[in-house]
Amino acid sequence: MRIKLVVGLGNPGKEYEKTRHNMGFRVLDKVAEKLNISNWKQRDGALYFDTYVGFSKVLFLKPQEYINLSGDVMIKFVKFFDIDIDDIFIVSDDLDIPIGTIKLKEKGSSGGHNGLKNIEKNLKTQNFKRIKIGISNDKTKDTKDYVLSKFSKEEELELKKVIDTASDAVLGSLEHPFTDMMNKYNTRVKQS
Fold first, then answer.
1. What DSSP designation does 176 have?
2. Which helix (H) or strand (E) holds 191?
3. Quick check: 151 and 20 in contact, CB under 8 A?
4. Would you state the pLDDT for residue 192?
5. For residues 28 and 154, what is the distance between their CA atoms, to the nearest angstrom?
6. Strands (DSSP E) found in the chain
7. Beta-sheet strands, E only, within 67-135
8. How does pLDDT run across 108-129, given as a tens digit for each residue?
9. Which of 21, 30, 62, 103 is flagged as catalytic?
10. How far apart are the first and last CA of the chain?
């Protein structure tokens, strides 16, 4: 039986919980809430749960190493469960997308995201599906400091909606063709 894998990217630990780099974790937490899952299990350097979404068995994974080692953790699950590249979905933050926006992509470069770089290195391909959540960018700050900073109160209000939408996009992608989901979610522009 084919197993699908959804990996949310972030940094473990309380101090990183609400930082910009932890959007992948936050979206997976919302997915778990929608699926009524409260007990994450621990294995091979990750928090995870598995369940059925539609007719698919799905493994949801939050690597518990720093974000730049996400692929090192993920590859253990890919190998153990013999997961096909076509069945891998990565949820991450993206500096080049405005806050309040998500973007689904079938493949592409890491765009400088160290978590995605490490996943590419481990999978030996860029052809994996991504669900990216915009965190905007502040060119006046060092990128490393910016992605580890927390959101403002105003941004947090906007994030509630986008996290909810992104979690719907994740669940939809597990049951419907990814191109359909791209058409559905990539056309949404930020409301002013």
1. S
2. none
3. yes
4. 40
5. 22
6. 3-8, 41-43, 46-53, 56-63, 88-94, 102-105, 129-134
7. 88-94, 102-105, 129-134
8. 888 889 999 999 999 999 999 9
9. 21
10. 45
Helices (H), the chain: 23-34, 70-80, 114-123, 143-147, 153-175, 178-185
Extended beta strands in 118-182, E state: 129-134
Taking 80 as the threshold, does the pLDDT of residue 189 lie above it?
A: no
21 is catalytic: yes
Instruction: Return the exposure string of 82-102: e unless at least 16 CB atoms fall within 10 Å of the residue's CB, then b.
Output: ebeeebbbbbbbbbebebbbb
Question: For residue 146, what is the DSSP state?
Answer: H
CB-CB contact of 78 with 26 (8 Å) = no
pLDDT tens per residue across span 124-180: 999 999 999 998 888 788 877 788 888 888 888 888 899 999 999 999 999 999 999
State which amino acid sits at residue 9. L
> Average per-residue pLDDT in the chain?
91
Residue 141 DSSP class:
S
> What does each C-alpha distance from 78 to 13, 34, 91, 181 come to in angstroms?
24, 25, 16, 24
**Token digits for 35?**
């699926």
- Please state the pTM of the whole predicted model: 0.93
88 close to 140: Cβ distance less than 8 angstroms:
no
